Request: fold
Amino acid sequence: MVANFGYGALVIALLVSLYGIGAAFYGVRKNNQGWVNSARNAMLLTWPLVTLAALSIIYLLVTNHYEVEYVSSVTSNSMPFYLKVTALWGGQAGSLIFWSWLMSGFASAVTLRKWDRDREFLPWVIIVSLVTLAFFLALSIFFENPFESLWQTPTGNITKSMLMPAGAIPFIPADGSGLNPLLRHPGMIIHPPMLYLGFVSFVIPYAFAIAALVTGRTDDRWIRLTRRWTLVAWLFLSLGLLLGGRWAYDVLGWGGYWGWDPVEIAAFMPWLTGTAFLHSVMIQEKRGMLKHWNMILVILTYNLVIFGTFLTRSGVLSSVHAFAQSAIGPAFFAFIGLTFIISLSLLLRRWNELKSETQMTSMISREALFLLNNLLFMGILVVCFWGVIFPLISELFTGQKVTVGPPFYERATAPLFAGLLLLMGIAPLSAWRYTTAKTLGRAMWKPFIASLVIVGVVLLTGVRSLPALLGFWLCGFVVSVTLYEFWRGAMARHHRAGESLPLALWRLAGRNRRRYGGYIIHLGVVLMAIGIIGIEMFQTETQGALQQGERLELAGYSISFDSLANFDTPDGRNVSRAVISVFRDGNYLGELHPRRDYYYESEQNMTIPGVRSTWEDDFYVLLVDWQPISSAGATFKVYHNPLVNWLWLGGLVFILGTLVAAWPDRDPETSRATARGSAYASVKA
Amino acid sequence: MMQPSLPKFKSIGWLVLANLVLAILLFGVAHAQKSEPVGVTDDQINAVAKQLYCPVCENIPLDVCPTQACAQWRSLIGEKLAAGWSEDQIKDYFVAQYGDRVLATPPARGLNWLVYIIPPVAIILGAFILYRAMRGWRQPASASRQVETGSGSSGDEYVTRLEEELRRR
Amino acid sequence: MTDIQTAPPAPETPAPPASRGGRFVIFGLSLSLGALIAWIALIALLAIVALSMFRNAQNPAAEGNVAPDFTLTTFSGEQISLADLQGKVVVVNFWASWCKPCEQEAADLETAWQFYRPRGDVVFLGVDYVDTETEAMAYLEKFDITYPNGADLGTRISQAYRIKGVPETYVIAPDGRLAGARIGPFTSLAQIQAMIDPLLSP
Reply:
């Protein structure tokens, strides 16, 4: 009953969306604001409808309605309540509803703002949002329907469908299969929603870009309107990627955080273009340049989002992450083809109108360096895209399956990332328009000396690897430059307004949130880079079978296998929990408890490592679950990951910086003054 | 300089040579004995397995893959190592048995050259396009200098203060 | 919707002054070099994805088509080529020692082989998919399999038949065409016979 209600809500939402699209088109055609307003109302109506559908699913999940096929595939009796709720996005069908719910929510939020100055954008924003929403709703209604029930046909087969097949009786399993154990980790609960939030919110800037192209209003307006949306979208996407990495590190048991898996890359690509866009819009705002390029970036970002979603869900890619192959492939493909072609057509149509007064006075001015930054981001994008597409090409043309794995991506992108780090250090010191080597050098020498000091310290710790030293130098350089920028700004306020240093810093960041938020983000990136250099270049591992009392050594640490406990838990798993003592240079450091969880209903294992985390390193011990585990003996895999916790700290700083940059300005007066002040384009701005 | 008599030198020479050969043989044998481990360690197996991918599961390196099939392949690597095979020999064997997909990156032959060539070519092309574009935008520095203070850090403090002041207004 | 021409085509006018390179006219559209490249890249990408999807969906090897030829090197060293077996009914079974469902049908397959063997016009071939020799031999011994088995070197045979997993069995008619496919294990001897009997000449 509830299932039918939810399905009905979906169908009505689709019909309302289609009506909205038609009404908006008609309103534009006839230049009739009434029809456009009607479309706007339709947009607003979709959200409560999809909410009802989502709530229906959640109700069915929570009340164990196993006759609904989706419910029995992602929940079970032994799952705790909160997991049943989050099972909404635990499977393909439910996650598509979640997508639609976010899409309608965000689009409605956008429609609620004041539209007086930008009335001509409204219908097109509505159309783009509703078309995307309608597509995802159609996927749910026709291909991946979470409300389908299980039936037993007269021949004894079990099928699923919305309507009862002739002669069939309802089939109600006593228990569900339960959520994949890997998905029950807290990180895995938040990671998909964050990613979806990021993906979905990138639709809004795209909608505005399309509106700008269609209406011919190709000036800055569409960028200014979506600036905050873009930043927020980027925030969520970054958060989603970081959480995914953290989850992989905590739970997947290969001592790593990023596997260059095609599905990971599919989520990473829009992040790359999004980051490039965030930088290059500053050029358009400050210098009026690059209108073409900004359009291209936004269009690319949206299309990469859809393309990435398609790759993940259609079964084209082979990946551990990918959803099982399903019928939505061709439908998705049609949608992608449509959006790619329409986007490209619109862009080419308005190409000449996007021309701007472009003057480049210096090849090392800030705009030049931003362009270089974009080039590097595009380079990384090309590497990622090609690495994902090539196995498809290879299989098509030679029939041979190949793997494009981490060594390819790491070797290809390392110099590009290093280049980006370098730019992070140089660009803040470079001025808009006029910079000569002399002015740049003068600005740079103090941070440069500081960075050399840092390298000296690193050398003292015994690091001799040249790539690592170069990496650490780059980190030191960027930190020096960024802190120098903060210091200079704060000192200026201090001298002028007599503010104490902490207050000066606070006000400084407060007055120019985007710039100093950006600097904080850069600091976060540097911290992450330090962690990445540590774990990528200096990780060591070992594996060995230990009997009780025996020891294993790695990197100056040693562990001894003390005991093993085996017990069942109320939520349906059998736990083998080992007690390990950790020593370093003979000193006892403490206990670790790696364990192996066996989930009865899905017959799957999960190994949770015992980890000792410090700022210096992670000492990471796993139970190897394909070898026997008993109190007589077990096999352990141990990783030593130097500096890895700087990666997570950097992630936190990164998010903090984004929040600072995105925080709304309290005083509209301030933001206007800021715009005016920067129009003077002084040397340091 | 003394000239030793030839026959004596000859016999000493042969003795030295014989000793040398014997030493090499002994050392070689001893070395060979040392290089034949009693049991192959998990680390040695993992060092090779790390570079290979599970032929059945997708995109999972062979050293962390938990399936029974992967466990069999790892013990196969152990057998080959114990028999004295080198890393490259083992990798070649896996490729012959299971195809190119077990390698972490496509072997550089035939169509696969594209994997390695396209990215650098694309980046260089992009750099070239960017360079041409920037050249086209370039104005002679003297022609369009305006009111902005063009000097570098000499007006440092003043300019920053000026900027802050403007912002406050 | 709207037309996508940049401007109404003016046949008499040469290239517009603004563009640097020459313009191409395709399907009545006037495109610059850059635009042309962009369109070509887009079409190529869509084509690759579409073909990949099509290829993925085409599974298993379509019935009625000529069965892909292959040469199997058995564990005992002999080479058996499918082309040589023309005129006989060939049952090609893909299996692996690590495949639990394969064990369900192993005994039935061997029984079926013994049943059809005296006739001389039915051949059973086992293709070992992505396996290790020691484990494979142990599996064959465990189930007393006597028909020829060999490893699928380089996964060439399984890729030719586009198998999605193991076990899968393909029955090839005497004329070389694929007569039937079984995805998953046989659950009874009768099922195997049901696939073979229609192809036999009395």
